[in-house]
Write a structure and sequence with these properties.
Structural class: mainly alpha
Number of strands: 2
Shape: flat
Order of helices and strands: EEHHHHHHHH
Distance between the termini: 66 Å
Strand order of the largest sheet: 1-2
Largest sheet: 2 strands, antiparallel
Low-confidence stretches: 44-48
Radius of gyration: 35 Å
Strand content: under 5%
Number of helices: 8
Oligomer: single chain
Helix content: 55-70%
Protein backbone atom coordinates (compact mmCIF):
# COMPACT_ATOMS: atom_id res chain seq x y z
CA UNK A 1 0.00 0.00 0.00
CA UNK A 2 1.44 3.40 -1.04
CA UNK A 3 0.73 6.97 -0.03
CA UNK A 4 0.54 10.25 -1.91
CA UNK A 5 3.86 12.10 -1.91
CA UNK A 6 2.07 15.44 -1.73
CA UNK A 7 -0.72 15.09 0.84
CA UNK A 8 -0.13 11.66 2.38
CA UNK A 9 -3.50 10.10 1.46
CA UNK A 10 -3.47 6.32 1.34
CA UNK A 11 -3.67 5.08 -2.25
CA UNK A 12 -5.16 1.90 -3.62
CA UNK A 13 -3.40 -0.23 -6.19
CA UNK A 14 -5.64 0.98 -9.00
CA UNK A 15 -5.25 4.71 -8.29
CA UNK A 16 -3.60 6.55 -11.18
CA UNK A 17 -3.77 9.85 -9.29
CA UNK A 18 -4.40 10.96 -5.72
CA UNK A 19 -8.17 11.18 -5.12
CA UNK A 20 -7.63 14.27 -2.92
CA UNK A 21 -5.03 16.47 -4.64
CA UNK A 22 -4.94 14.69 -8.03
CA UNK A 23 -1.15 14.25 -7.94
CA UNK A 24 0.03 11.68 -10.47
CA UNK A 25 1.09 8.31 -9.10
CA UNK A 26 4.42 7.35 -10.64
CA UNK A 27 4.69 3.56 -10.26
CA UNK A 28 5.65 1.87 -13.52
CA UNK A 29 5.34 -1.64 -12.03
CA UNK A 30 1.74 -1.20 -10.81
CA UNK A 31 -0.99 -3.04 -12.71
CA UNK A 32 -3.75 -0.56 -13.41
CA UNK A 33 -7.31 -1.67 -14.13
CA UNK A 34 -8.94 1.30 -15.88
CA UNK A 35 -12.46 -0.11 -15.28
CA UNK A 36 -12.15 -0.02 -11.49
CA UNK A 37 -13.39 3.15 -9.82
CA UNK A 38 -13.96 4.23 -6.23
CA UNK A 39 -17.39 5.55 -7.14
CA UNK A 40 -19.43 4.94 -10.29
CA UNK A 41 -19.71 7.83 -12.70
CA UNK A 42 -23.47 7.26 -12.91
CA UNK A 43 -26.11 5.98 -10.50
CA UNK A 44 -27.37 2.56 -11.41
CA UNK A 45 -31.06 2.25 -10.63
CA UNK A 46 -32.33 -1.07 -9.43
CA UNK A 47 -34.71 -2.46 -11.95
CA UNK A 48 -37.92 -3.83 -10.44
CA UNK A 49 -40.01 -6.65 -11.65
CA UNK A 50 -40.83 -6.25 -15.28
CA UNK A 51 -44.57 -6.64 -15.05
CA UNK A 52 -46.42 -6.36 -18.29
CA UNK A 53 -49.51 -4.32 -17.44
CA UNK A 54 -50.85 -4.65 -20.95
CA UNK A 55 -51.11 -8.41 -20.57
CA UNK A 56 -53.01 -8.01 -17.32
CA UNK A 57 -55.32 -5.47 -18.91
CA UNK A 58 -55.87 -7.75 -21.89
CA UNK A 59 -56.67 -10.73 -19.64
CA UNK A 60 -59.15 -8.66 -17.64
CA UNK A 61 -60.79 -7.37 -20.82
CA UNK A 62 -61.15 -10.88 -22.25
CA UNK A 63 -62.69 -12.22 -19.03
CA UNK A 64 -65.05 -9.23 -18.86
CA UNK A 65 -66.16 -9.83 -22.44
CA UNK A 66 -66.80 -13.53 -21.79
CA UNK A 67 -68.79 -12.92 -18.60
CA UNK A 68 -70.79 -10.13 -20.26
CA UNK A 69 -71.62 -12.36 -23.24
CA UNK A 70 -72.88 -15.14 -20.96
CA UNK A 71 -75.00 -12.71 -18.94
CA UNK A 72 -76.61 -11.22 -22.04
CA UNK A 73 -77.37 -14.67 -23.49
CA UNK A 74 -78.96 -15.88 -20.24
CA UNK A 75 -81.10 -12.75 -19.89
CA UNK A 76 -82.24 -12.89 -23.52
CA UNK A 77 -83.18 -16.59 -23.33
CA UNK A 78 -85.08 -16.06 -20.10
CA UNK A 79 -86.95 -13.06 -21.46
CA UNK A 80 -87.80 -14.74 -24.78
CA UNK A 81 -89.13 -17.90 -23.12
CA UNK A 82 -90.87 -16.48 -20.03
CA UNK A 83 -91.31 -12.82 -20.95
CA UNK A 84 -89.70 -11.90 -17.66
CA UNK A 85 -86.42 -12.22 -15.80
CA UNK A 86 -86.73 -15.05 -13.29
CA UNK A 87 -84.34 -18.02 -13.26
CA UNK A 88 -81.63 -16.15 -15.17
CA UNK A 89 -81.01 -13.80 -12.24
CA UNK A 90 -79.22 -16.52 -10.27
CA UNK A 91 -76.57 -17.44 -12.89
CA UNK A 92 -76.19 -13.79 -13.90
CA UNK A 93 -75.54 -12.76 -10.30
CA UNK A 94 -73.11 -15.69 -9.95
CA UNK A 95 -71.25 -14.55 -13.08
CA UNK A 96 -71.05 -11.01 -11.70
CA UNK A 97 -69.59 -12.41 -8.49
CA UNK A 98 -67.02 -14.38 -10.49
CA UNK A 99 -66.12 -11.27 -12.49
CA UNK A 100 -65.47 -9.27 -9.33
CA UNK A 101 -63.34 -11.98 -7.72
CA UNK A 102 -61.51 -13.22 -10.85
CA UNK A 103 -61.45 -10.51 -13.53
CA UNK A 104 -61.49 -7.29 -11.49
CA UNK A 105 -58.00 -7.83 -9.92
CA UNK A 106 -56.48 -7.78 -13.43
CA UNK A 107 -57.47 -4.11 -13.80
CA UNK A 108 -55.66 -3.06 -10.63
CA UNK A 109 -51.93 -2.32 -10.79
CA UNK A 110 -51.04 -3.13 -7.19
CA UNK A 111 -52.69 -6.12 -5.57
CA UNK A 112 -51.81 -7.29 -2.08
CA UNK A 113 -53.06 -10.40 -0.34
CA UNK A 114 -55.02 -8.42 2.25
CA UNK A 115 -56.61 -6.21 -0.38
CA UNK A 116 -57.71 -9.19 -2.45
CA UNK A 117 -58.95 -10.95 0.68
CA UNK A 118 -60.98 -7.87 1.62
CA UNK A 119 -62.56 -7.66 -1.83
CA UNK A 120 -63.41 -11.36 -1.85
CA UNK A 121 -64.84 -11.32 1.68
CA UNK A 122 -67.25 -8.45 1.12
CA UNK A 123 -68.11 -9.70 -2.37
CA UNK A 124 -68.95 -13.15 -0.98
CA UNK A 125 -71.09 -11.68 1.81
CA UNK A 126 -72.99 -9.49 -0.66
CA UNK A 127 -73.35 -12.41 -3.07
CA UNK A 128 -74.97 -14.61 -0.41
CA UNK A 129 -77.36 -11.85 0.69
CA UNK A 130 -78.56 -11.09 -2.84
CA UNK A 131 -78.74 -14.80 -3.72
CA UNK A 132 -80.96 -15.49 -0.70
CA UNK A 133 -83.10 -12.49 -1.63
CA UNK A 134 -83.52 -13.74 -5.21
CA UNK A 135 -84.39 -17.30 -4.17
CA UNK A 136 -86.72 -16.78 -1.22
CA UNK A 137 -87.44 -13.06 -1.12
CA UNK A 138 -85.71 -12.55 2.24
CA UNK A 139 -82.24 -12.84 3.79
CA UNK A 140 -83.10 -15.39 6.50
CA UNK A 141 -80.08 -17.70 6.26
CA UNK A 142 -77.73 -15.43 4.32
CA UNK A 143 -77.47 -12.84 7.09
CA UNK A 144 -75.82 -15.40 9.38
CA UNK A 145 -73.42 -16.62 6.69
CA UNK A 146 -72.53 -13.05 5.68
CA UNK A 147 -72.01 -12.05 9.31
CA UNK A 148 -69.67 -15.01 9.83
CA UNK A 149 -67.61 -14.01 6.79
CA UNK A 150 -67.35 -10.42 8.02
CA UNK A 151 -66.39 -11.62 11.50
CA UNK A 152 -63.54 -13.72 10.07
CA UNK A 153 -62.45 -10.66 8.07
CA UNK A 154 -62.42 -8.59 11.28
CA UNK A 155 -60.10 -11.12 12.93
CA UNK A 156 -57.80 -11.25 9.89
CA UNK A 157 -57.83 -7.45 9.68
CA UNK A 158 -56.68 -7.27 13.29
CA UNK A 159 -53.82 -9.66 12.51
CA UNK A 160 -52.67 -7.54 9.56
CA UNK A 161 -53.01 -4.31 11.55
CA UNK A 162 -51.00 -5.75 14.45
CA UNK A 163 -48.04 -6.21 12.08
CA UNK A 164 -47.93 -2.44 11.57
CA UNK A 165 -49.24 -1.20 14.92
CA UNK A 166 -46.97 -2.74 17.54
CA UNK A 167 -48.78 -1.21 20.53
CA UNK A 168 -51.22 -3.59 22.21
CA UNK A 169 -53.64 -0.97 23.64
CA UNK A 170 -55.03 0.11 20.21
CA UNK A 171 -55.34 -3.55 19.24
CA UNK A 172 -57.31 -4.37 22.39
CA UNK A 173 -59.58 -1.38 21.74
CA UNK A 174 -60.04 -2.53 18.14
CA UNK A 175 -61.08 -6.03 19.15
CA UNK A 176 -63.38 -4.76 21.92
CA UNK A 177 -65.24 -2.39 19.58
CA UNK A 178 -65.44 -4.97 16.80
CA UNK A 179 -66.66 -7.75 19.08
CA UNK A 180 -69.27 -5.51 20.75
CA UNK A 181 -70.66 -4.43 17.38
CA UNK A 182 -70.66 -8.00 16.09
CA UNK A 183 -72.40 -9.31 19.22
CA UNK A 184 -75.03 -6.59 18.97
CA UNK A 185 -75.57 -7.49 15.31
CA UNK A 186 -76.11 -11.17 16.08
CA UNK A 187 -78.38 -10.34 19.00
CA UNK A 188 -80.42 -8.07 16.74
CA UNK A 189 -80.84 -10.92 14.25
CA UNK A 190 -81.65 -13.61 16.81
CA UNK A 191 -83.73 -12.08 19.59
CA UNK A 192 -85.93 -9.15 20.43
CA UNK A 193 -84.32 -5.75 20.08
CA UNK A 194 -85.46 -4.65 23.55
CA UNK A 195 -83.40 -7.36 25.26
CA UNK A 196 -80.11 -6.23 23.72
CA UNK A 197 -79.29 -3.33 26.11
CA UNK A 198 -80.72 -5.09 29.20
CA UNK A 199 -79.51 -8.67 28.73
CA UNK A 200 -77.11 -9.30 25.85
CA UNK A 201 -74.71 -6.38 26.18
CA UNK A 202 -74.43 -6.58 30.02
CA UNK A 203 -73.57 -10.29 29.82
CA UNK A 204 -71.09 -9.66 27.05
CA UNK A 205 -69.44 -6.77 28.90
CA UNK A 206 -69.21 -8.89 32.05
CA UNK A 207 -67.51 -11.71 30.15
CA UNK A 208 -65.17 -9.21 28.50
CA UNK A 209 -64.32 -7.54 31.82
CA UNK A 210 -63.43 -10.75 33.63
CA UNK A 211 -61.54 -12.06 30.60
CA UNK A 212 -59.31 -8.98 30.55
CA UNK A 213 -59.04 -9.05 34.35
CA UNK A 214 -57.76 -12.62 34.18
CA UNK A 215 -55.39 -11.71 31.37
CA UNK A 216 -53.81 -8.79 33.23
CA UNK A 217 -53.57 -10.73 36.51
CA UNK A 218 -51.80 -13.62 34.77
CA UNK A 219 -49.61 -11.15 32.86
CA UNK A 220 -48.60 -9.33 36.06
CA UNK A 221 -47.52 -12.51 37.86
CA UNK A 222 -44.75 -14.93 37.00
CA UNK A 223 -46.32 -17.71 34.96
CA UNK A 224 -47.14 -20.69 37.12
CA UNK A 225 -49.72 -23.40 36.50
CA UNK A 226 -51.16 -23.10 40.01
CA UNK A 227 -51.43 -19.31 39.74
CA UNK A 228 -53.11 -19.70 36.37
CA UNK A 229 -55.70 -22.19 37.66
CA UNK A 230 -56.40 -20.16 40.80
CA UNK A 231 -57.04 -16.96 38.82
CA UNK A 232 -59.21 -18.71 36.21
CA UNK A 233 -61.36 -20.52 38.78
CA UNK A 234 -61.79 -17.43 40.95
CA UNK A 235 -62.72 -15.09 38.10
CA UNK A 236 -65.04 -17.72 36.60
CA UNK A 237 -66.93 -17.88 39.88
CA UNK A 238 -67.27 -14.09 39.95
CA UNK A 239 -68.43 -14.12 36.34
CA UNK A 240 -71.13 -16.67 37.15
CA UNK A 241 -72.40 -14.38 39.90
CA UNK A 242 -72.52 -11.42 37.51
CA UNK A 243 -74.38 -13.40 34.83
CA UNK A 244 -76.82 -14.79 37.40
CA UNK A 245 -77.61 -11.28 38.66
CA UNK A 246 -78.07 -9.92 35.12
CA UNK A 247 -80.39 -12.75 34.05
CA UNK A 248 -82.41 -12.61 37.28
CA UNK A 249 -82.79 -8.85 36.93
CA UNK A 250 -84.00 -9.28 33.34
CA UNK A 251 -86.54 -11.99 34.21
CA UNK A 252 -87.87 -10.95 37.63
CA UNK A 253 -86.88 -7.27 37.88
CA UNK A 254 -85.01 -8.06 41.12
CA UNK A 255 -81.53 -9.18 42.14
CA UNK A 256 -81.09 -12.64 43.66
CA UNK A 257 -78.59 -15.49 43.42
CA UNK A 258 -79.55 -18.98 42.27
CA UNK A 259 -77.44 -21.37 40.22
CA UNK A 260 -74.33 -19.23 40.69
CA UNK A 261 -74.14 -20.37 44.35
CA UNK A 262 -73.53 -23.93 43.14
CA UNK A 263 -70.82 -22.68 40.77
CA UNK A 264 -69.14 -20.69 43.55
CA UNK A 265 -69.20 -23.66 45.92
CA UNK A 266 -67.40 -25.71 43.27
CA UNK A 267 -64.89 -23.20 41.87
CA UNK A 268 -63.76 -21.36 45.01
CA UNK A 269 -62.44 -24.55 46.67
CA UNK A 270 -60.62 -25.41 43.45
CA UNK A 271 -59.02 -21.96 43.42
CA UNK A 272 -57.95 -22.28 47.05
CA UNK A 273 -56.60 -25.77 46.37
CA UNK A 274 -54.46 -24.43 43.53
CA UNK A 275 -53.03 -21.74 45.83
CA UNK A 276 -52.31 -24.32 48.54
CA UNK A 277 -50.54 -26.60 46.07
CA UNK A 278 -48.46 -23.65 44.90
CA UNK A 279 -47.48 -22.79 48.48
CA UNK A 280 -46.63 -26.43 49.20
CA UNK A 281 -44.42 -26.45 46.13
CA UNK A 282 -42.68 -23.27 47.30
CA UNK A 283 -42.27 -24.75 50.80
CA UNK A 284 -40.74 -27.94 49.43
CA UNK A 285 -38.36 -25.89 47.26
CA UNK A 286 -37.35 -23.80 50.30
CA UNK A 287 -36.73 -26.87 52.44
CA UNK A 288 -34.75 -28.56 49.67
CA UNK A 289 -32.51 -25.50 49.37
CA UNK A 290 -31.96 -25.39 53.13
CA UNK A 291 -30.98 -29.04 53.36
CA UNK A 292 -29.11 -28.93 50.03
CA UNK A 293 -31.14 -31.69 48.45
Amino acid sequence: MSYCVHCGVKLAEYHEACPLCHTKVMDPHAKIDPQTRDYPEYREHLSGKNTNHMRRLLAGTVLTSVFSMYCIILLLVNFIVNRQFSWSLIPVWSLMYLWFTVAYPFFRIKNTFFRLYTYDSFATALYLLVLNLIISGDIHWAKFAASGIIFIWIIMNGIFISERVKKWIPMIAYYIIASVLFTALFAFMLIDTASIPTLVLPIYLAVLFFAFLSFFMIKALVFDLYNYLAIIFFNASLLSVAIDLIVTRFLTQSYSLGWSLVVISALIPLSLTALMLRNIKKLRTYVAKKFHR
